[in-house]
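Q: Hi! First time asking for a complex rather than a single chain. Here are the components, and I think there are two in total. Is that enough to go on?
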Amino acid sequence: MKTSERIGSLTRYIVALGAIFFALFPVFWMVGISFKPPDEWIAREIIWFPQNPTIDNYLPLFFTAEQLGLFVWTAVSQTAVKSIQNSLIAGLGGTAVALFIGTTAAYAMSRYKAGGNFMPYLFLTFRMLPPMAIIVPLVIWFTTLNMIDNIVGLILLYGLFPMPFVVWLMRSFFDEIPVEIDEAALIDGCSPLQTFVQVILPLVRAGLAVTGLFIFILNWSDLLVALTMTRKEAITATVQLGSYMAETGQLYGVMAALGIILLVPPVIMGLAIQRYLVRGFTFGAIKG
Amino acid sequence: MAGLRDWITIPDKFKNLLIMPVQLTMNIVAMPAFALAWYVGFTNWSPAAGDWWEANFIFFDNFINLAGDQYFIGAILRTLLIVGICVPIEFALGFLLAYVLSGDFIGKKAVITIILVPMMVVPAVGGYIFYLMFLEYGPVNALLSIVTGTDFRIAWFNQPNTALISIMLTDIWQWTPFMFLIFISSMLALPQDPINASYVLGASRGYTFRRVMLPMLRTPIMIAVILRSIEAFKIFDYIYIMTKGGPGYTTQTISMYLYEWGFKYIRFGYVTAASLLIFITMAIIGWYASKPLRGVK
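A: Yes, that's all I need. Here is the structure of the assembled complex.
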C-alpha cells in the first residue's frame, strides 16, 4: 500500500469516527437521561453515564400517579397512553388515505397522462408551502365543520399533507413498469380496473410498502398539524411532549423517556427503507 | 347499471375515476379553506368576537399593517438568516463527508447507516434532545469546559444570539445527514470510466474532481440545496420546543410568528392575511424551485 493511500484510509476512519460521535452523542445523551433518577438529570458535576439506572421515568407515561403510588417526579397530569395511541391511529389512518388517493392519482398520471404536466407539478408545489401558512385557514374551516380535536379530521389531514410524496414516488415506481404489460393485460381481456388492481399493483408492492413506511414516518413526526388541530382528546405524542414541556419544564427524565418512545419506530423504519430514502426525500427525482 | 360499468371499462372514464379520490379530498378539505382565507384575510376577525361572517370587512388594512409590522418583517428576515446560514453549512459538511467516505474502507455501510440516524429522529424530539444538550448544566457546556479548560457556563436560551445558534445547530445536526445521503448515493452511482480515464490521462485528483465529477453531480446538488432551503424555511418544531420564539421575539421565525398570532393572540383575520402573503410568495418560488425535480425522470 502506498503511503498516500494509507493516509487516505486513516483520514477516512478519523472522519467516520468524528461523524459517528456527532450523530449519536445527542441521542445517547437523551437515552442516558431517560434512565437516570432525578438527581442525575442536570447534576452540577455532569454525569455522563447513569449511575443508578432506573426505568422510573417510563412509568408515569403509562400509569397514573394513583396506580404507581407516590413518586415526587411523577406529577404529570396525564399519561401518554392516549396520545401514543392517537399518533398510531392517525399516523396509520393518514398513511392509508394518502396511499389510496395518491396511488390512484399516480397511476392515472403515469398511464393516462391525467392532468397533463400541470397537476403533478401543482402537487409538488403544494409540498413546498410552509404548512403553517395553510393551517390557520384550515383551522377556520375545520371549526366550521366541527372537526377540531377529532381523530377523523386528523386522519384526513395526515392523508392530504403527505399526498404529494405518494403521487411522485408511486409515479416513479409506475413509470419503471413497461407500458407493454398494461397493453398485454388489456388485450387479454382485462378491464382497465383489473389491469390496475390485479396486474400492475402487485408489481409495485415493494414500492407501495416503502412509500407507506415513508409516509408513516412523516405523519408520526408531525407536530405542527396536530398542535393546531387538536386540543385534548385527539392530541398526538409529539403534542404531549410539548405540553409536558410547558406544564412541568423540569421533568427531564420523563420527557426524555417519551422522546425515546417517539424516536425508536421511525429510526427503525427509516433504516429499513434506507435504500429508498433518497428517492423518498427527493420526490422520486433521484433514484439513489 | 351500464353507466356505472363504463367507469371501469372505458379508459377515459376510468382515468377520471382514478383521480376522483384526490380531487374529492382536495375539494372537501383544502379548497374551502383556501376560499375562506381570501375572505377572512380581509376582515379583522378574531374568534373571540363571534363567527367569521360577522367580522368587519376592512379591505387591505391587514396587508398595510403587515408591511409595517416589525415582528412580521423581523420573522421573515430571521427565517432567511437561518436558511442562509444552515443550508450552506449543511451542504459543505454533507458534501465533504460524502466525498471522504465515498472511498472504499471496511465498515463503510455501517458508518453510512449510523450517520443517517439524526435525519430519522422526530424533529420535535430532536428539538428536545438539543434542549437537554444546551441546558446550563448540560453536556455542551461541560464539553466546552473540558476543551477550553475554564468553567464554561452559558445559559444558551437566555440570550438572543446563543438561543438562535442552538436552534441552528439542531437544524444542522438533523439535516446534514440529508445532504450527505443525497451526495454519497450520487457519488457512489457515478460512472467510474470517465474518472479513471481522467487519472490515466494524468489529471490530478483536484482537476478530476472539478472537471469530471462535479459536473456530473450538478443535478443532485441543485436538488439537495433547493429542497433543504425550502424545508429550512418552514422551521418550526425546534423553536416551539426549545425557545417558543424567545427570549422576547428574538428567535421567532415565520412559522412561529403565524402560530403565535394565530393561536396565542387569536387574531385570525390578521394572521390569515399574513398566511396568504407567505402562501402566494412560496407558491411562486416553489413552482420555479421545483423545476429541477421534474426533469430527472
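A: The mean pLDDT of chain A is 90. Let me know if you'd like any chain examined more closely.
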